[in-house]
Amino acid sequence: MQHTADTLWLEILTELDESADSDVYLRQVTPRSLTDVSLNLAVPSNYTQAEIENRFVRDINRVLANRISPDCMVKISVETSLVKNPESDGNGSVSPQNNTEPTGLNPSYIFDSFRVGPSNRICHATALSVSENPGSDYNPLFIYGGVGLGKTHLLHAIGNRVHQKTPKEKVLYVTSETFMNEYIESIVNRGSAQGFRTKYRETDLLLIDDIQFLQRKEGTQEEFFNTFNELHKNSNQIVISCDRSPQMLENLEERLSSRFEWGMVAEIDKPNFELRYAILKGKCQEQGLKNVDDEVLNYIADIVTANIRQLEGTLLRLYTQASIYGVQLDIDFARKALKDTPSFTRRPQQKIITAQTIQKIVTDHFQLKSGDLTSAKRTKVLVYPRQIAMYLCRELTQLSLSDIADTFNRQNHRTITYACEQIEKLLKDEETKKLIQHFMDELT
Known about the structure:
alpha/beta; 20 helices; 51% helix
């Protein structure tokens, strides 16, 4: 099909659904234009531009190379006119607020737009309770679950509800990586250290996303530990999200992870079919998507089971494609459009595949020692098998990139992204292609 900036961006979002933190920053992007050499995107602030360039540009360019050409690169510009005022009443007027400090909240993420089902009912109920009575029953509230299941949505919903009810309260949403970067900046620029501590320790409601990224960051963990203690002592509410339970945070200080269990620990699981269908129906209403057959929604809900982000992205991509072709989005169009998409054509797994299983099979095939793949050694004889194992983990497991990095004792998920890029390039070689297929056949 002929790509436009909009359809290509939707495909990129679907490709990046395993990348951490994509909800907050990537969803602020407005696609502007597409040429043979560039995908031009606009964002509302320099901060958002920096976050995307630091975290996602390499992955975005990889998708562009595969779908457009190796010469096509992403270009990001700032358009301040895109800034949304969270205090707007929807009619263009702005309600006066007593607290004008930035909150980091996305006003689109509210409780009314969060679909509830068996997989997230407890998380939703506790989040709603916290928003009604912060600093009381569930402090801290620790929400954990896989990528794209709604953790970030709930954090923003809590913040938006509290900010709406009590504007004087200081509400702050940040990712753990933002917390770390600001902490490092406070060390480099000693004059900002007190301002950093005041910002976080005098917050009435602190919402911190993806706490797993503080693993192995000893100095940042110490600073967050002190921040946590100060907030908790003053009965200020703390809400934390993570991709795993506190007990599974192996590279986080025990005194910190144990504190996460002081209040309420709630898991958010993958949505069942009924909830996936309800999410799609709700998305149609929210986005004004007209004349989408129920059969199409059933079809998407049946085959897209990984996470909500991919579910919504698939619907929007199909709707955009149908609009471009000027045809009805019916079941025949949906099946035809998705039939060549690898994520939907891969045969279903008949058994549970773990990273450890993959590492053992690759280790045995290349006659390596146990632990070689997870060691720090970078000899030529180890790099190739290690990259293959990383690629197989991404393709055959439900692990996030950060989870895969942990299983290989790597500090950064970008190592996994790079390894997968290298193997994808080598798949043009028939020998590597056969080897990868051999491993997949053996594993599945």
